[in-house]
Write a structure and sequence with these properties.
By secondary structure, this protein is of the alpha+beta class. The chain has one domain: Alpha-Beta Plaits. The protein contains three helices and four strands, in the order E-H-E-E-H-E-H. The chain has a four-stranded antiparallel beta sheet, with helices on one face. A hairpin with a 2-residue loop joins strand 2 and strand 3. It is elongated. The relative contact order is 0.24.
């Protein structure tokens, strides 16, 4: 499984102005996120402010991460980045440099 950082931002251009509709939509989004957390897909969720935040997710592929991000679209805009561990990053960078030095 790969880990992904999913940055999200509420698309304010299409948010409902009626508080009843906004409440219903927000409850549905929170419930969906809670289910993904309960299923172990979302490992961590947090916010920067009420309209923006992040998710750390574990998924089998970038394609699956994209599918997950579009599940909340167009109301929520996502920016999906695969996370490469620090250990793996060191291994890749140093291996590449060692090959160049030979």
């Amino acid at each position: 499984m790969s880990r992904y950082l999913i940055l999200y931002k509420i698309n304010s251009a299409i948010q409902p102005v009626d508080p009843k509709v906004a409440l219903k939509q927000s409850e549905a989004n929170f419930a969906a996120a809670d289910e993904l957390k309960k299923a172990g897909i979302f490992k961590e969720l947090g916010t920067f402010n009420p309209g923006e935040g992040y998710i750390i997710a574990e998924l089998p592929s970038t394609e699956e991460a994209l599918k997950l991000g579009t599940r909340f679209w167009p109301g929520i805009i996502t920016n999906i980045r695969e996370i490469i561990s620090w250990e793996k990053t060191k291994e890749i960078v140093l291996s590449n440099l060692r090959e160049q030095v030979k």
